[in-house]
Amino acid sequence: MNSKTLNPVDLKMTEDWEGNNAAFTCPSCSKVFLVSGMIHKKGRACPACGLAIAYVEGGRKSGGSARIEWATSE
Question: Closest Cα to residue 65, out of 55, 73, 74?
Answer without folding.
Answer: 55
